[in-house]
Design brief:
It catalyses: L-citrulline + L-aspartate + ATP = 2-(N(omega)-L-arginino)succinate + AMP + diphosphate + H(+). Its EC number is 6.3.4.5. Keywords: Amino-acid biosynthesis, Arginine biosynthesis, ATP-binding, Cytoplasm, Ligase, Nucleotide-binding. 42% of the residues lie in helices and 20% in strands. The protein has 402 residues and is of the alpha/beta class. α4 packs across α5, α4 packs across α10 and α5 crosses α6. The protein starts with 6 loop residues before the first strand and ends with a helix.
């Protein structure tokens, strides 16, 4: 343990783990002052009700609640969306993108208050410890880092509840909680319980936001999304902020069961884990952006955008946000996205979202060239020379073998 710490800023959620961390820090770090930092990244409003009182009752000297919702979507989600990043082909990186904005605000508060250290409640098994601590290292390496899950001997929910009970610290947590969930404006994840065996099918309890697609409305719903420079700027003709656009699309996606995935993923620390993720509005946004890209980006540009997305998925997942590689990937994606302007009509129906209409002033699609009917712009005979040159290496290889 690191000695000489007088003030620690803890990333606090109000849940069982961080409620126990506050008194544990005071007991094991010479009765240091513990300041609770609560990041509002769009989680359930119920999670924020009474959170300050809970922190103070657990022994915190102060509790700071910081609204990061707009910053999260505008400065972290939208840049990743421009790259089209999907971790291992399907995960829209909901937890991954939230951690750097939370850790950054935590560091800023710690520096403002003159704290010696920062702490988090991430376990030693997961990705979040890396994401938090990589941000701390990049922005304020002089701050000491305390990770209780790597130090204490409390290894179960029962042990944590007993720990709080002995100290007369109130908690609303119970032994009945089966699933571990992480929620923000972009998504909600569910892990644990029946999901720990990949042979178990997910049940209704594994999904927290979205309607079961089988029970979604029988009538499809259309939504129009406006895109400017690779960013969603309006929904159904109404211009809104990034967070507001997401909030509007979330409501539609939830209603139609959009954005559910059940995956086994490779964690950064080496093990595999299984989770059910719901990203309703984000899935709609992704479909809208890719729809405009299909019109605007040429073949090589689209291929490069795909490569950027693949690389960005690992950079974001691994917690490498405050690094030159992330800045470089983002700059490349923004260069491609400057002409990605347009409008897309999407059909939402029973868990599916399809772009059924799309237009852009920068569209490279030409009906004259693409038509199967008669045209006056394309000379079919030109294709012969193109094919001869395109296939020339194959021709030379075959001739050399003879």
């Amino acid at each position: 343990m690191t000695k000489g710490i007088k003030k620690i800023v803890l990333a606090y959620s109000g849940g069982l783990d961080t409620s126990a961390i506050i008194p544990w820090l005071k007991e094991h770090y010479d009765n240091c002052e513990v300041v609770a930092f609560v990041a509002d990244v769009g989680q359930s409003r119920d999670d924020l009700v009474g959170v300050e009182q809970k922190a103070l009752a657990s022994g915190a000297s102060e509790c700071h609640i910081v609204d990061l919702r707009e910053e999260f979507i505008k400065d972290y989600v939208y840049p990743v969306l421009k790259t089209g990043a999907l971790y291992e082909g399907s995960y829209l990186l909901g937890t991954s993108m939230a951690r750097p904005v939370i850790a950054k605000a935590q560091v800023e508060l710690a520096l403002k208050l003159g704290a010696d250290a920062v702490a988090h409640g991430a376990t030693g098994k997961g990705n979040d410890q890396v994401r938090f601590e990589s941000t701390y290292a990049a922005l304020a390496p002089q701050l000491k880092v305390v990770a209780p899950w790597r130090e204490w001997d409390l290894r179960s929910r029962e042990a944590l509840l007993d720990y709080l009970k002995v100290r007369n610290i109130p908690t609303t947590a119970t032994l009945e909680k089966i699933y571990s969930r992480d929620e923000n404006a972009w998504h909600i994840s569910t892990e644990g319980g029946v999901l720990e065996s990949p042979w178990n099918a997910s049940n209704a309890d594994c999904w927290a936001w979205t309607v079961d697609p089988k029970k979604a409305p029988e009538t499809p719903e259309l939504v129009t999304v406006t895109v400017k420079a690779g960013e969603v700027v309006a929904v159904n003709g109404k211009t809104q902020s990034p967070f507001e656009c997401l909030d509007t699309l979330n409501a539609l996606g939830v209603k139609h069961g959009i954005g559910r995935i059940d995956i086994v993923e490779n964690r950064l620390v080496g093990m595999k884990s299984r989770g059910c993720y719901e990203t309703p509005g984000g899935t709609i946004m992704m479909a809208a952006l890719r729809g405009v890209e299909q019109l605007v980006l040429d073949r090589d540009a689209f291929k490069w955008r795909q490569q950027l997305g693949l690389e960005m998925s690992y950079v974001a997942y691994d917690g490498r946000w405050f690094t030159p590689i992330r800045a470089s990937l983002q700059a490349a994606a923004e260069a491609l996205a400057k002409d990605v302007n347009g409008e897309v009509v999407l059909e939402l129906y029973k868990g599916h979202v399809n772009a059924i209409q799309k237009k852009s002033d920068n569209s490279l699609y030409s009906e004259e060239f693409a038509t199967f009917g008669e045209d006056e712009v394309y000379d079919h005979s030109h294709a012969e020379g193109f094919i001869r040159l395109y296939s020339l290496p194959s021709r030379i290889r075959a001739l050399s073998k003879k």
